[in-house]
């Protein structure tokens, strides 16, 4: 039986890429019965009725999956944040990074609109970039207007499934248009009243950019830590996970425990203060979460 990858899902149809051809497939009833929802990014086995249409027979095991946006087998998340308009938000970036780390997806931080910054703003962005690079994250500063950083970004997309994610209005679609001009994706200006952009992307689709596949998604519609337990949060902050091995107590949450290596590292500025403060905020949010029954 032929195999392929779902690159688009729309109105109950799954578009499977097989040998550079798109086959429009429906799912068999067995998927509903077994509570399996095929996702964009899934590797599937299908039965072709003709050259253009067929039925999905089997979804192969996934290495990961996201619910919002609904996509599977993601290699990396390109987290797109603007330097200004809207202003760069470290707390929102850390929220995204926690969710990406929890799902075992490689993150890449892309800060856009650097052409709109003044010297002071650019200096602050570069300080943040240095802090995230110290943790081990790849950080690229870009501009869709001047095309700064685009050459640096392009090689990271090759041979991977990437999901572009970030706050509305930061220029995800503009960036994709620069990476592949024939896409002509719709972009919207930021609403002055709300201070954020309007959603312009309605469904998940994998598009070819260079030798890679990129999901232009409606973004993460939920940024809640619904599945993360308090004890797991440390491991979503790589620099804290590393230091926590030296804590006196196993299962240390780095709040008020004695001889905590993470708190010592914050005091010695080995761990950025803003990262630790965000960790404490997220930990409290998880502790305050209503129990699910």
Task: Count the E strands.
Answer: 15
**CATH structural class of the largest domain:** Alpha Beta
Helix residue percentage: 25-40%
User: Helix count?
Assistant: 9
Structural shape: globular
| Spatial ordering of strands, largest sheet | 10-9-8-11-15-14
Secondary-structure element string: EEEHEEEEEHEHEHEHEEEEHHHH
Which helices and strands occur, and which strands form pairs?
Blueprint: E1 3-10, E2 13-18, E3 21-27, H1 29-33, E4 43-48, E5 53-59, E6 65-66, E7 71-72, E8 76-82, H2 90-102, E9 106-112, H3 119-135, E10 138-141, H4 150-157, E11 161-165, H5 172-179, E12 190-191, E13 196-197, E14 205-209, E15 212-216, H6 230-233, H7 238-244, H8 261-267, H9 273-288
Parallel strand pairs: 3-5, 8-9, 8-11, 9-10, 11-15
Antiparallel strand pairs: 1-2, 1-4, 2-3, 4-5, 6-7, 12-13, 14-15
């Amino acid at each position: 039986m032929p195999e392929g990858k779902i690159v688009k899902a729309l109105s109950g149809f799954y578009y499977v890429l097989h040998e550079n051809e798109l086959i429009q497939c429906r799912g068999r009833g067995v998927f509903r019965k077994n509570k399996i929802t095929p996702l964009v990014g899934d590797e599937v086995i299908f039965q072709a009725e003709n050259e253009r249409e067929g039925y999905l027979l089997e979804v192969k095991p996934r290495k990961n999956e996201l619910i919002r946006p609904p996509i599977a087998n993601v290699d990396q998340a390109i987290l797109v944040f603007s330097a200004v308009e809207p202003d760069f938000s470290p707390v929102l970036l850390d929220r995204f990074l926690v969710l990406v780390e929890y799902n075992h997806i490689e993150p890449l931080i892309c800060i856009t609109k650097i052409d709109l910054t003044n010297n002071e703003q650019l200096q602050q962005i570069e300080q943040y970039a240095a802090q995230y690079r110290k943790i081990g994250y790849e950080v690229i500063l870009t501009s869709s207007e001047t095309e700064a950083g685009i050459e640096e970004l392009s090689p990271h997309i090759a041979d991977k499934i990437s999901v572009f994610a970030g706050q509305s209005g930061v220029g995800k679609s503009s960036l994709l248009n620069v990476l592949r001009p024939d896409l002509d994706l719709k972009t919207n200006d930021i609403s002055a009243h709300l201070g954020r952009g309007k959603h312009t992307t309605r469904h998940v689709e994998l598009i070819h950019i260079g030798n890679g596949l990129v999901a232009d998604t409606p973004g993460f519609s939920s940024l809640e830590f619904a599945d993360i337990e308090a004890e797991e949060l440390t491991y979503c902050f790589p620099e804290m996970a590393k230091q926590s091995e030296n804590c006196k107590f196993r299962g240390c949450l780095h709040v008020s425990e004695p001889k905590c290596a993470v708190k010592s590292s914050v005091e010695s500025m080995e761990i950025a203060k803003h990262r630790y403060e965000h960790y404490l905020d997220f930990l409290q949010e998880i502790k305050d979460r209503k129990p699910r029954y």
